[in-house]
Structure prediction request, 240 residues.
Amino acid sequence: MSVHRSLRSNAGIAAIALVMLAWPAFARGADDAAKKARRELRSKRFDQVRALVSGVLFSGTRLVGAGSRGRYVGGGGALELNAERFFTDRLGAGGVLAGFPPAMNADARKLAFFRGELFGLLALDAWGGALPGSAVVGLGAGGDLSRYWSSENGRFYGLAFGRLRLFTSRDTRGQITYTAIPVALATTGVKLHEHRIEAGVSWKLLQVGTRFHTTVANGGVPDRTFVQQELGIFAGLSVY
Prediction:
């Protein structure tokens, strides 16, 4: 009888010891799984890589000569690469390269365009539930060349933006981005600021959307205000 009790007692002690020895491994495994889930959530909700084709039409007023105002209409297209990556749960970085290559033909050369932007990212929040999504803000700088009269010889600017992304299903999502350019230095000698709105929808890897930009410039003698409005569309591949 006492032998049986002793055996049961020893078995209980061995089981407790085994659990104590195995617990750190189980805990590490659970912690690793939680970290992996957080990384996957962060990647899906915050990161993105996009390869797009875009086209725009714009019209407005421009500086003519020293201080006259004239109307103009234009348009163009571009190939775009946009990449954003978060390195922690909150902080990330990204950039945009967009352009349309120059041509030897004088008329085609008017369509030549280049834009580059770099920015830091801050994740405000990501949520689940019936309508999961995320909110991100960014701050950076950029520049572009040609296409617009105010940047015929280049312009440089700071930018700030906010983006809301929502997932209506596993494969369908939408996002809207507002970008403010509070001040820009243009080689044409005008001061300008700009507002950009972009709305896009995605299904699996395909993304399509539209953009609306308003640019306000001041310059000339006497000082005048010039306004340009731009409407664009885009389509391409997007990976979240």
User: Anything to note?
Assistant: The chain has two domains: 1-45, 47-239. The domain at 47-239 is CATH 2.40.128.100 (Lipocalin).
